[in-house]
Amino acid sequence: MNDGDPLMDQMIQAVELDLHQIVGQLEPAPLQEMVSHHFGWLDGRGSGKRIRPLMCLLTCAAAGGEWELAVPAASSVELIHNFSLIHDDIQDQSELRRHRQTVWKVWGQAQAINTGDALFALARLSSNRLSQRGVEPARVLAVQQWIDEACLELTKGQHLDLAFDAGASGRLERYLRMIRAKTSSLLAASAAAGASIAGAPEPQVAAYQQFGLHLGQAFQLLDDLLGTWGEPDETGKSAADDLISRKPTYPSLYGLRHSAEFAALWSRADADLTSMVQLLEAAGARQAAQAAATDHTQLALQHLAAAGPLEPAGAALRGLADRLLERQT
Q1: Quick check: 253 and 288 in contact, CB under 8 A?
Q2: What is the pLDDT of residues 232-256, one digit of tens each?
Q3: Which residue would you say has higher pLDDT here, 232 or 178?
Q4: Domains along the chain?
Q5: Is 261 left (phi over 0), alpha (psi -120 to 50) or beta?
Q6: What's the angle, vertex CA 206, arms to CA 174 and CA 306, rounded to 5?
Q7: Which of 66, 219, 283, 291 sits between 20 and 30 A of 190, alpha carbons compared?
């Protein structure tokens, strides 16, 4: 994700070290093993790109702060993200994540729920460590407020996801509300937390928060495009994987609204996938999803410019956004 950027290299290394230290203190040992398994530390494959911690540290630096002070908050948002993933895997009955068995699949649902709860508790303890690094109490409270509000948004988004009815009215608007809560909220909180730690004024914090929010929206919309039109070599999934599973996405919901022929095929388990993709194209679903992603990308970059980021962190933030949104569709 960092493409050799020296600043992001340093940040990722600092977060990884901090996460290992946090998890290394977990007892009993089997609980630590479950968390280490989820993070990919046991098989050496790793556990993601650390987008949210990077966002937190980069916005701190861009707002004129010392990013090292924000490492506890960066670890906190990463722990929150992974707590939500462990619980999502249980609720979705997903047996694999990043090519390894999920925690619930190995140790059972009860232990996986408990492991997710442990990560949630560790996240709050981690952000509380900001005071040990000299961050003013008011800023620590502000950061915790951003993180707690994002957690609540995550649960709202997951509720909408679990209860989603692709055949209900207003489904496209409901879907956008869902991804805003489930995908964008924590990225937005990460950006706001970093700026808060730097002591940025409220308008600047709000600009960074909106940057993260719209970037998350654009990222999810592009991911939806990849789920239907992406190349398997690029996505790691089968072509039209989202259609095969009948997963509600922006293109499929757009198709359900604008094409009766697509809606008829959507309801059939034996529907021809090639025909479904063609009908989505004909209905304008691909263009509509791309246009929505472009709109959110432009809004994200406008808010970033309004925040007036300092360099080199500003360039790193723009680079992070570019790499998140450079997807083959």
Answers
A1: no
A2: 555 445 557 789 889 899 999 999 9
A3: 178
A4: 6-325 (1.10.600.10)
A5: alpha
A6: 110
A7: 291
Indicate if the pLDDT at residue 35 is higher than 60: yes
Largest Cα–Cα distance in the chain?
A: 61
- The span from the CA of 17 to the CA of 22, in Å, is 9
3-class secondary-structure state, position 100: strand
Predicted TM-score of the model (pTM)? 0.93
Q: What is the mean pLDDT of the chain?
A: 93
C-alpha to C-alpha distance for 127 and 174, rounded to whole angstroms: 32
> How many helices (DSSP H) and strands (DSSP E) are in the chain?
17, 2
Identify the CA nearest to 281 among candidates 268, 269, 290, 270.
Answer: 290
How many CB atoms within 10 Å of residue 29? Answer: 8
Which residue(s) pair with 100 in the sheet? 97
Kindly give the residue spans of alpha helices, DSSP state H, lying in 101-170: 103-107, 109-128, 137-162
Contact 45, 100 (CB under 8 A): yes
Q: What is the mean pLDDT of residues 112-138?
A: 97
| Tokens 């502000």 found at | 142
